[in-house]
Amino acid sequence: MTHLRHHNTTCAVCGESCRFTIPEAAGSVGSRDLDTRPAEPLRSTIYAWVKRCPSCGYCAPDPGKALEGVADVVKLPRYRWQLDSRKFPKIANTFLCWSIIQEDLGTPAQAAWASLHAAWICDDEGEDVAARVCRTRAADLLRRAWEKGERLASQPGTDEALLADLLRRAGRLREARAVVKKALEQNPQPVIADILRLQARLIAASDRGVHTVAEARRFSRPAPL
Ligand SMILES: [Zn+2]
């Protein structure tokens, strides 16, 4: 069971006093999903990872901390639209607003993570269309990060495995297949290769569902001689 505590802060954008409920630090027991989503109890703490100032709508892991230029981003029409969009669950909007901030401040890798986290919220709420939109956005941001020479993870092939999962679960199967094929040609580490081979099987079966890293290990077979 996760214990909760309260955090009082002052919004760095508008100066409003805010009180947020946050869970105590939690670990996870069990396998991660293919898109890195951790198992419980950490999995369920996602609802507190990004917070929203109830006054001005500034969304951040800590709205008490100002990022340079953020006061302008929260005024953007695009940001205001996202904040109250009815196309997404409310907490997914909070993550997507944080993603817009990261994107606007020039850190697409962080923006990609925030968009993926928004997808997880949509998954939990059974909002499939919204989840696909979030994953498509995360995939686009991930590629933009690569163009800037940034990667989300340092181990070779890890980003590609994540991109394949984003595309598969967004229903972009042909693109996902191409990413898997190219990544396998680079001879990644065995654990990454197992994940990519599972992705290939799922794509072939048009399976857009959630699967775990443990499954990839279970199904792994030695390469034929
Ligand atoms: Zn505020």
From TrEMBL:
- Give the protein's recorded name: DUF2225 domain-containing protein
- Superkingdom of the source species: Archaea
